Amino acid sequence: MPTEFEMRKKNAQFASAARAGKKPTKPSRQEKLAKRSPISLWALGMVLFVVVGGVIFEIARILFL
Fold it and tell me: CB–CB of 17/23 below 8 Å?
């Protein structure tokens, strides 16, 4: 259980953030997930690897054959 002092301090921080125009609460887990990209970073890396590798392979094939 937080003490009365801690509660007052948290309430004061909340009020000052609200007055400053900032969002006083932390975003929920659902809000964080909504902002995330649907394709993960490693999948994007794999796609780029295949595309860039294919382009390099085709350039090498044209030059040497």
Answer: yes
